Structure of Ribonuclease:
Amino acid sequence: MLAIRLHRRRRTALALATATVLAGLTVPAVTTTTATATTTAATTAGYDDAYYDGAAGKSGEALKDALHTIISDQTELSYSAVWDALKVTDQDPGNSSNVILLYSGISRSKSLNGGDTGDWNREHVWAKSHGDFGTSTGPGTDIHHLRAEDVRVNSIRGNKDFDDGGSGFTDGGGSLTDSDSFEPRDAVKGDVARMIFYMAVRYEGTDGWPDLEVNGQVDNGSNPYMGRLAVLKAWHQEDPPDAFEQRRNDVIHDSYQHNRNPFIDHPEWVESIW
Ligand SMILES: [Ca+2]
Ligand SMILES: [Ca+2]
């Protein structure tokens, strides 16, 4: 169509310089391409915007309240069902027989789930002692923050808060730890932060569970808090959601809990709430 129009203009011999005509045609062509790319990106997200209708136009506490209502509508898993769910959500994209261990970055056979040295087990990224919610169906079985991890590395992380600094350790994959905190490897720093933000919004003191909140401390012990907020916000910025994390959110929504982590879908909401 454009080519035909150009051809006709030439035939009318209006003495327009060819360069001028091409420039005039190029501008709308580029604009169209950009618009198409934007539309494609928006429609490949793993959720319908209708999921977040109740949060539209909100910010701060109002946004947090709206998101709490939205994501609290979920199916809950038993702790034993978590094993099989993690084999799907944490599957190695390069080897469907394996899972990727969160802090270690190691790919390990799905069949090695258990409690022995060399096995992987169910790591609570929001340490279950922070609020003492255990492994009854509820926050302790919420796979948005449950991840496959090497038994020994899981023990090294223990119930420490998150902060920068410390020393590396065997099979740590670059993760660090010191006496009072844990720093995950760079590739999952943002993933960890977004899991913590999800937990703080999902659990607001209803359903008989404690109100989990993020704070600025690294000595939270058994209080229902997790730190350190400023560091988690920085990690969220440094390590934005990638394909692995987005697929994981989709699988949890589509196949297991039927709720989403809003901070993977809308990273900008972290700054709005905190
Ligand atoms: Ca990441
Ligand atoms: Ca909360």
In short: Residues 1-44 form one domain.
